[in-house]
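Wait, can you check?
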Amino acid sequence: MDRRSFLRGAAGSSLLLPFAARLGRAEAQPPKRLVFLFVPNGKHMQTWTPAQEGRDVELAGTLAPLQGLRERVLVLSGLAIDGGRAHGDGPGDHARAGGSFLTCTHPKKTAGSDLQVGVSVDQVAAEQLGGQTRLPSLELGIERGRQAGSCDSGYACAYSSNISWRGPATPNAKETDPAAAFTRVFGDSVNPERAKQRLAARRSVLDLARAEAKELRRALGGGDRAKLDEYLESIRELEFKLSRPPVQVDAKPPQGKLDRPERLRAMLELTALALASDQTRVVTLMLANAGSNARYGFLDVPEGHHNLSHHKGDAHKHAQIRKIDRYHVGELAWFLQRLGELEQPDGSSLLEHTAVIYGSGLGDGNRHNHDHLPILLAGGPVAGRHGHLRFERETPLANLYVSALRWAGCRAHRFGDSTGALALG
């Protein structure tokens, strides 16, 4: 049995694969990964869209947190999802925005079990790339969502709660508990009770890989040994952060372990570590459900996001939406920076081998339009062609997905309503 097969078969040890690769016992060429990040309710497009086109553009306004990463970021204007439009079905744009975001098809209007939408792009990738990792794909989110009932004008809640669909009627339910997600990626997902006992005893999942880690340290050079220690410490820190007990507040029931910004940051860190350890190569993360009316009190935004998106030109609501938009973009910037810090076996960064697609299925939340979408591509495919590209009106977002699939090494002649691959300059 080769080194890679041994590590994948040993409980907990597969997280050491990136460093085993440094010994030439696994792939010399780092694999490519795909990450899809969804935000609801569109954007404040006036401060999202760069004023200029081309490479040498300043990322200002909502995009300002990305300025330091501008050589790895490409803003794409003019893309559309025709499947998000009503097509005679009346209201329900938020549900359609969620259901069509990664499928690029029109969700059937139903509140029952007769769901109908396309297979999502992440699952097309997972079908071709997933056999090489323990988890074919990983679906994450920040808000829980119902899988049954009506959530938007007669559209099933499943459309609002999921962006990943493994079949036309079968969503991949996302994991919204960071601790449970950590267990799925690194822990004993077959025996959750045993995982709880391990955490209660303050034992780390890294204990399962201790012998292999010692062997690797002896074989690695000094610099790589330090990086191995930093990498394992990152996993350990996240693990114990997620295992801390709930906080009792007065006579109220215990509060959740992490507040909203902590949950998002934990999910982003988990995504980065899952990719770095090659547990999976395909991840979707919903920063909020489609049509989310979450309140961002930590940003001094007490009103609900969905309500604010129906701004009707109100200056106060515009300002509040900009705060939410900039927060989400700031978290994207943190995530990209984190991918840039994680080194691959060949010395390159994880960011160079990851395509990150961030955006919403709506343009302006007040207009409920499904064209001129706020879409951003970052990471590996952007090398040498960063900046701002504007495409002809009605260019399908599906064309971007075809390009991303091909970049990742997947066979993709077309996807959804695509008309070809997107020309990225």
In short: The first strand starts at residue 33 and ends at 38.
